[in-house]
Specification:
- 3 copies of one chain form a homotrimer.
- Chain A folds into 2 domains: 1-34; 41-191, Allene oxide cyclase-like (AOC barrel-like).
- Chain A has an 8-stranded antiparallel barrel with strand order 2-4-5-6-7-8-9-10.
- The relative contact order of chain A is 0.15.
- In chain A, β6 and β7 (134-143) form a beta hairpin.
- Helix content of chain A is 15%, strand content 47%.
- By secondary structure, the first copy, chain A, is mainly β.
- The model of chain A is unreliable at 22-30 (pLDDT under 50).
- At the A-B interface, α1, β1, β7, β8 and β9 of A face α1, β3, β4, β5 and β6 of B.
- β1 (32-33) of chain B pairs parallel with β10 of chain C, so a sheet runs across the interface.
- Chains A, B, C: Homodimer.
- Chains A, B, C: Belongs to the plant dirigent protein family.
- Chains A, B, C: Keywords: Apoplast, Secreted, Signal.
- Chains A, B, C: Its main location: secreted.
């Protein structure tokens, strides 16, 4: 009787083991197909860009540094700013107030890359230095900035964000002519270490 | 007899469990060593770059926006274009015909970075918007463009390409002087969600 | 007796299986939380940047190609070089000697992005071509270069570094005015294929 119970228990064991073996090897030996259900970390942050226009040297956090032959580096170019490259060091805040205490800086560059409408391409990092977070999150991606929301890729991180990956949803929270804009970034990290 | 069969079956169990434990913990608690056998998704796409040269403003999809001190932004620099930075918004097609219906745009920048031979460095995204695919794929990497094929990294994606990673093999499919070139990109994605 | 031993062994089995099932499914169906203990590959490399200053055309490995309106492309800008974009093709060596045989080239760009102190943002690749390694490693990230050490992200790779990810710790190993600097990069890869 005891032996027979042992033999019966043996069957589901084998099935379970085979199942485990299957899903385990599928994640280790071939390309991975994973569907994360929810982020392992989320952050909502605002950053503020004040573009140098020849008059605001003291306050500016960004400057046009490159432009096509038909434009200059003080005024954003025609043709929807096509070809303008901007370097920036923008304060990051937890709310939409430029004057709130910054929790870090957004640093890097963006470039306008379409003649017909406003569209940008971004390469930058959040450099966070607050009681909550110390570390960097790096982003690249297309920013079709006339869309209400647009997603860019989180491609790496350091410190508290060591090796992270994910997606950030950007929203233009405010803009004032060609001098100031504020972006809200909903950062969703799906790989945390 | 029954009991002895149970005991014999017990030994491979333990071995299997130990094996499973080993490979499972190795992927979760330490650095991962994975050898993908084949991509989870592949795409073959062409993109077309028409560089502004002072005469082709209507058709140009790209413009030199930065160059070293010895050069200007209308004609590609000497010394194998070293230091020229180009911003682009190129149509993407499914075949090698510039006039085929575009399935998206390749947007971003490249820069020439070697004095002795033509070599570029790329940072750009495919922004796909077709019945088949909606989303972005972002690339960075060195492009030794005199090589028949060269690989760049797929570092992230959004939409249909959420969180993707992989490698793209680039081939120069055509070039006409310093105005037009066409690249074929064999995109191989090894992480799909 | 034999049967009773089988039944007793059965309990830890189930626990172990449940444990395995838990950790295995947690890595495949939801966002991943992984804590790598040690890199799967490490490299210590030096790269050497000689910035064009109008006099050193033959030796220069880098050139300012973009700058804000108040600066030019021969001399690094005031305000801690804010807005200067530099394209580079630097030799990589295994030790700190500029004249050691190079094992590859560091190619890409950096930009200075802060008015108050020296800070840079990097986008570049190591293109390695030696008996030990053939392939590329791509980096992006903030470089607060006045810090003794700072981490940037390894976001992709090709060849021997296919699909790799990790972190690189940069250290300024030497600098001579505004013409030469040497960085030591401790590259720690946590995803190897």
């Amino acid at each position: 009787m005891e032996g027979s119970r042992g033999r019966m228990a043996f069957i589901p064991h084998i099935l379970l083991l085979l199942f485990l073996l299957l899903i385990t090897t599928s994640t280790t030996t071939s390309s991975t197909l994973r569907r994360p259900l929810k982020p392992c970390k989320t952050l909502i942050l605002y950053f503020h860009d004040i573009i140098y226009n020849g008059l605001n040297a003291a306050n500016a956090t960004a400057a046009i540094v490159a432009s096509p032959a038909w434009a200059n580096r003080t005024i954003l170019a025609g043709q929807n700013h096509f070809g303008d490259v901007v370097v920036f060091d923008d304060p990051i805040t937890l709310d939409n107030n430029l004057h709130s205490p910054p929790v870090g800086r957004a640093q890097g560059m963006y470039l306008y890359d379409k003649k017909e409408i406003y569209t940008a391409w971004l390469g930058f990092s959040f450099v966070l230095n607050s009681t909550d977070y110390k570390g960097t999150i790096s982003f690249i991606g297309a920013d079709p900035l006339m869309n209400k929301t647009r997603d860019v890729s989180v491609v790496g991180g350091t410190g508290d964000f060591f090796m992270t990956r994910g997606v950030a949803t950007l929203m233009t929270d405010a803009f004032e002519g060609e001098v100031y804009f504020r972006l809200r970034a909903d950062v969703k990290l799906y790989e945390c270490y």
